Amino acid sequence: MTNETKQQSTDCIKQKLAQCLCPPGNGVFTVNTAKERKEQLHQRIFGQATDVEQLWKESLNQLPSSSNAVILGIASDCGGGILRGANWGPLFLRSTLIENYPDLTAFDMGDVRVIPHLLADKYLNDATIANCRKALYQDENSDYCVSPLSITEDVLHDFYATYPEKGIFGIGGDHSISYPLTKAYLQAKKKQGKRAAIIHFDAHTDLLVERLGIDLCFGSWCTHILDDLHEKHHLIQVGIRSSGKPKSHWENTFGVKQHWADEVKEQGVEQTIVNILAQLENEAIDELYVSFDIDAIDDSYASATGTPEPDGLMPEEAMSILRALAAKYPITGADMMEIAPFTDSSGRGEVARDKTLTVGAEISAFLLEEMSKA
Length: 374
Known about the structure:
Layout: H1 3-20, E1 21-22, H2 35-46, H3 52-59, E2 69-74, H4 89-100, E3 107-112, H5 126-137, H6 148-162, E4 167-172, H7 178-191, E5 196-201, E6 235-240, H8 247-254, E7 257-260, H9 261-267, H10 269-282, E8 287-293, H11 315-328, E9 331-337, H12 349-373
Parallel strand pairs: 2-3, 2-4, 4-9, 5-6, 5-8, 6-7, 8-9
Antiparallel strand pairs: 1-3
């Protein structure tokens, strides 16, 4: 690629980002709700709380020379279905990361512009798409997507084509968002000639074919990325414990590899690590993507989420697995999903919220640090 071609590609992706994204924390469109929290985040990132739109657009000029770890917020919970509220995850988790890990070198690219009633463009008729394009882009004839899953996938295809050495750390949002995040990642890695595996931490398999007639949602996203892997068992799931069917059903039906939470407890985390690494070594894997649903962690530590579950992984167990993986393989993409700061089923309110955010931030900071090395 010539320097002129590279510059054209850089200019094109910057224009798309400026249209399809918005400043960090602004993915949830509100007038007054959480206004102070948004202003605090903007003050920390941009040094001021007003007129941040232009400052954010100018910051996109730094993307080519920035850290390999790039943050993208997708503040959508339209693909969820139990307790909503994960759309506030990107705002709250960013604030916790900045407060607890001020030395992180990740570049924050901003948030996907979310119309909260939409999921993916394929579910919309032409009139609705035209109306939404007019609302988002002031042009009903625009070519840009309008739904969060569709915008994310479209933006990331161009992102990886322009910056193949960089990786996206997605902050959700409900777990349906991992569908475009991982799909764009896996397709980009295949074009680069690399074999990538997905390490998926979750209490649930997310291997439904559909949920109530919708094929792309928080309970089905894994099913629809399997064909983008070199082998289906390159999806490795850790922490599963809430399922109406046994482990054998999921592994035999979908070809994935699972490590249920009770197995981790019974055999110990060190043996679990040995088992995962043995599989990866036999598969000649080059790079890893980590998708982390916060409900993989036991609900005593992570109850501010839509589907908190008991008998899960302890934070240190999850961190031990991640450290061992990172010692052997570059982590070049990741996400943190399903933190719902205003939603807590434990009755402990802000204490539970802050505890969940602390755990989510510790895991996220580690993943971002590893991605910045890649």
